[in-house]
Amino acid sequence: MKIKQGDKVIVTTGKDAGKEGVVSKVLRDINKVVIDGLNMRKHFMKAGSGNQGGIIEKPAAMNASNVAILDPKTKKPTRVGYSIDKDGKKTRITKASGSTLA
After folding, report:
1. Is 90 within a domain?
2. Residues spanned by the domain of 58
3. How many whole angstroms separate alpha carbon 83 and alpha carbon 66?
4. pLDDT tens column, 38-53
5. CA distance 69 to 9
6. pTM score of the predicted model
7. Could you tell me the CATH number of the domain that includes residue 42?
8. pLDDT at position 51
């Protein structure tokens, strides 16, 4: 999976298609990502010691194939590749413009 925590992505399919967000968590073993503020689900909290309880909204995991990384230069969805420097250091680059990703 070429998506990392902190990447700015755009959702390509589903109810949140076209919306942008930042990846807050990557679940590599099940090929899913959690994006802040997108794919919100209602979670019913039971009142207990110290908390009031009630209905809260939490972001749910979505399949990594439904998101694409945004190119920092063009602000459009792109694929990710790798480039190896002269020192042997591997860096992520965007396929569309060739700019490096953090």
Report:
1. no
2. 8-74
3. 25
4. 999 999 999 988 888 8
5. 4
6. 0.82
7. 2.30.30.30
8. 85
Reply yes or no on whether the pLDDT at 78 is more than 90.
yes
Number of domains in the chain: 1
In a domain, 54, yes or no: yes
- Mapping DSSP onto H, E and C, the string for the chain reads CCCCCCCEEEECCCCCCCCEEEEEEEEHHHCEEEECCCCEEEEEECCCCCCCCEEEEEECCEEHHHEEEECCCCCCEECEEEEECCCCCEEEEECCCCCECC
pLDDT category at 65 given cuts 50, 70, 90 is: very high
Q: Residue 93 falls within a domain, yes or no?
A: no
